[in-house]
Amino acid sequence: MNETTKPNTGFWIIAVLALLWNLLGVFLWAMEHFFMTEEMKAAYPPEELELMNSMPSWGIYVYGIAVFGGLLASVLLLIRKKMAIAIFGISLLAILIQMGYWVFGMDSVSVMGPQSLIMPLIVIAIAIFEYFYSKGAARNGWLS
Fold first, then answer.
1. Structure pTM?
2. In terms of DSSP H, where are the helices of the chain?
3. What is the Cα gyration radius of the chain?
4. Is residue 97 part of a domain?
5. Most buried one in 8, 18, 21, 102, CB count within 10 A?
6. Of 9, 18, 4, 5, whose CA–CA distance to 134 is shortest?
7. Residues 37-88: pLDDT tens digits?
8. C-alpha to C-alpha distances, 63 to 8, 73, 90, 102, nearest whole angstrom
9. Structural domain count of the chain
């Protein structure tokens, strides 16, 4: 049987922040794909709305895998399970596919400008951090 050691306070802070971040991702996914009203859509510039509407249908599934995977991995991290590493990895892969297509496949920069790169880069950086942090937590003996 594997012995685990008690994680430090920083672990709990990071695990809760990861959970909150991924809950926000699930909320935004649901808002964008199920609850966006016509009034909300009207607030977007027409070019941006057209870009969002031209996303291929597989995009909703990849986005869903990214956010629900991140949420599941965060819960697994909170309950100190090593499976969090693999799920964070799957979520990261889905994020890279989704954001890569958004930036390069759809050329969002030409429509929305260079500021359209900010959020994808933040999301990717956080996903990379979550993945490697969970690996470090396992290495420290905090996950079983």
1. 0.89
2. 9-30, 38-42, 46-53, 58-78, 83-100, 108-112, 118-139
3. 17
4. yes
5. 18
6. 18
7. 888 888 888 888 888 888 898 999 999 999 999 999 999 999 999 999 999 9
8. 32, 15, 12, 11
9. 1
